[in-house]
Amino acid sequence: MKEWIPQAHACWVALSGGLDSVVLLHRLVTQRETLGLPLGAVHVDHQLHPESAQWSERCRALCRQLDIPFELHRVQARHCPGESPEAAAREARYQALRDWLRPDHCLLTAHHEDDQAETLLLQLLRGSGPKGLAGMPAVSVFGRGWLGRPLLGVSREQLLAWARDHALDWVEDPGNVDRRYDRNFLRHDILPRLEARWPGVKHALARAARHQADAASLQDALAVSDLMQVGGRGPATLSVTALLHYTPPRRRNLLRYWLNSLGLPTPSEAVLEQIDQAALGARVDAMPRVHWPGAEVRRYRDDLYAMRPLLRPPAGLRDWDGGSCELEPADGRLEVTPTSGQGLRRDALAGRRLQLGFRTGGETLVPAGRGHHHSLKQLFQERGIPPWERDRVPLVYCDGELVAVAGLWLVEGWQARGEEPGLALKWSRL
Questions:
Q1: Check: CATH 3.30.70.1070 for 2-211?
Q2: Does the pTM exceed 0.90?
């Protein structure tokens, strides 16, 4: 079992008190000497069942009997309207464990071959692609450590046999037989019928999940290679012209990988089709926007941009102390670095009222070194700043006078020269 555990400083079994996790813990305890790592158990009480406190104490007693450390966490896992209770409990549990797990420690769960088969069927019924059909990986990054599933090659029958051979005691959660939950319906009503017709079907489904994991890995490798060829003019952008050289399936694969790499939610097939038609297929002078929960894609000229949904920047001016700060809801950070011979001239700002604001329209300035007035709109167009970004770049005012556009232009007469102390401004989106 040790080969399933990444190099870690300690391992913790996610102990529910049920058959699977009790067997995993017991098996690891019997191999403690060869494991070569500190071993403990952690239990999450969802407080959804009247007997949940008793289950927690049974877990604590088992760990005391096995002489291993025990950690208990209590969470509120009540679901919102329209949300699956099972999903809400799972998310609350994993979030608590993710926040708690120490750096370089490994959390071990008791997911087994039957769970993998059920997961593949659920994902298949949802119309998932190879990544979803790959099921649960044996090892993955989790919080500041890892998540390991050392029992994916072991069946539920084998776990039950181990428990009986060693006279183990475990908790029976009545929720595990509630057919209202999709997984329970598959487990108790569908898979037994499949097994009766095709013996070994669970093992075959788990093997199919491994094949899908291989396919998903190859898709990612292709996307990484493609991504190197289609970069746009700036970060988090792709060239529309380059994208259109790929076939639609290859383009969809690249877009999924790109969006996931940016930490954005994966779009559905319908959204990907909309990106293909409304954004990539738009006229060069159009500025289409495609959005889905938690993300949006926009096009400007030949570049495709991806981002979290944009919020409207605040109106009016706010006082500023001249230091670095985050600006909400403009979703960015203004970095201020003391320097000399560049940036805003500090002597000119001393003792005067400094304020930050955002573009409202009609602003003009004389950029340092240009010699005559330009509209801010014209300057943004020349620089190729996308329209939605133009209203989110901070403007710096001194006693009500515009003196800088953060990270882009200083107004003539306000720049530091020679050895004069200055303030260099840098604006970046969070």
A1: no
A2: no
